[in-house]
Design a protein that fits this description.
By secondary structure, the protein is an alpha/beta fold. It is about 35% helix and about 25% strand.
């Protein structure tokens, strides 16, 4: 009997959803930084075995939207409650459970299996702290199975995976058995570059930046990639480029190394920077960037 199912990972920003996703899938599909709102899209990571297929889904952190881009991000998180066979809700040891409580109340009403992940337990000083957090969350999501975890240290991740496999419903596979994700190669180029912007630029710049691949010419041993970073203001463009092009060179150099690792090929990367004013609030631009259908 073959089993397969959609396992959606949800929770508030910066609790470690993407780190957990990458550990469960065994590949670095979602970008990870210490900054909130790193994930903007819903990203599938597919795990295959002879007798099962797990379709993990990483989602943007739940937030109160301030502009149309964040409305789109929230819609991805809302959709994750409607099409899951198993729901993984991720919190951590410092988060206030009252944060975005309306979304949590929706999770509590779900009839499907829920795994509650209390992440970052490596930050705790002792067992008593963990027990207090455990009891508090058990009162909020009484039907959930709770897994104290450190995704960064890979603690308890194998037990989460084991339980997911046990809960999968009977089903044929949804994707080919050699599939790793539903996203095209170009998507991961944009995510890697956006990760470097998040890491190297401060304040609002990373959240105002979007990356588009204009050219992806893949040969047997190399890939020629041309990309454009869009920002909202001229001042942001100046920051991304840096004095004498220093910041753009740093972003490009770091991104190229990771892209080469991802594709296992030599990469020739070109990056340009353009201004697209107020793109986060313009539906036509959000549609062209893949945030709206």
């Amino acid at each position: 009997m073959h089993r397969a199912g959609f396992v959606n990972i949800v929770g508030n920003p910066n609790v470690g959803k993407s780190t957990l996703m990458n550990q469960l899938v065994g590949e670095r599909l979602s970008i990870i930084t210490s900054k909130a709102q790193t994930t903007r899209h819903r990203i599938l990571g597919i795990v295959n075995a002879d007798d099962y297929q797990i379709v993990f889904s990483d989602t943007p952190g739940v937030l109160q939207p301030k502009y149309k881009l964040q409305e789109s991000m929230l819609s991805f998180s809302e959709e994750a409650l409607t099409d899951a066979d198993i729901l993984i809700y991720v919190t951590d040891v410092v988060e206030n459970p009252e944060k975005n409580r309306s979304y949590l109340d929706k999770v509590a009403k779900e009839k499907i299996p829920i795994l509650l992940i209390i992440n970052k337990i490596d930050l705790l000083k002792g067992q008593d702290e963990l027990l207090a957090i455990y009891d508090r969350w058990k009162g909020i999501l009484p039907n959930a199975e709770i897994f104290p975890t450190s995704a960064k240290e890979k603690f308890n991740v194998s037990n989460i995976m084991k339980r997911v496999v046990e809960l999968l419903p009977p089903s044929p596979p949804f994707f080919g058995k050699d599939a790793l994700t539903d996203k095209p190669a170009r998507f991961f180029v944009t995510e890697i570059i956006r990760e470097k912007i998040l890491l190297h630029c401060e304040n609002e710049v990373p959240y105002s930046a979007e990356v588009i691949v204009e050219k992806f010419d893949e040969k047997e041993k190399s890939i020629h990639i041309m990309t454009v970073i869009y920002v909202e203001r001229d001042s942001q463009k100046a920051i991304v480029i840096g004095k004498g092009g220093s910041m753009l060179k740093r972003i490009g150099s770091d991104a190229r190394k990771d892209i080469e690792t991802f594709f296992q090929k030599k990469v020739f990367l070109e990056i340009f920077v353009n201004v697209e004013k107020d793109w986060r609030n313009r539906e036509n631009k959000l549609r062209s960037f893949g945030y709206l259908d």
